[in-house]
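Researcher: Next entry in the queue.
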Amino acid sequence: MTKKVSKDDLIAVERYKFILEKIKYLDSLHQIHFAVIYKVLTALISFIIIVIFSGIEEKIKPATVEFSVQAAGMILIFTCLFFFAMSCAILSSWRDYRIEEVDFLSTIDTKVERKLPSSDISWRWNEIQFIALLITLCLLGVIIFMYPKIITNLF
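Model: Structure for this entry, 155 residues:
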């Protein structure tokens, strides 16, 4: 004999699927953002190297080399600030969905037990480490923007 499933049970299952889907989506966004930052860094480093070697070969003026390095620093700053804001929003949303998941599981009769995210171990979260990387890169961008001679005098 099969147990009749109520509409409330079906809605609860769909709600739980929705919550898990959103958590997975937010995790995938984090991975996409990391890949974009990696590509931006690769492009900026390549740009700076090309500009510096063009300056060494006197194909462009030293003022243009300095300006180009400053522009690369500014691009790095804006990119990191954008992804910092996005990462904070993603982390906040992820935490909200996780709290909703824990609350939901506590209301139904199940052996699945999830705990609320703990700030004690937040330093182990990939998102927090990514935010720390963004802050470091942003500071590097400020240094490059303020003192482009540090980079241009390397060659």
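Model: The chain has one domain: 8-152.
Researcher: Noted, moving on.
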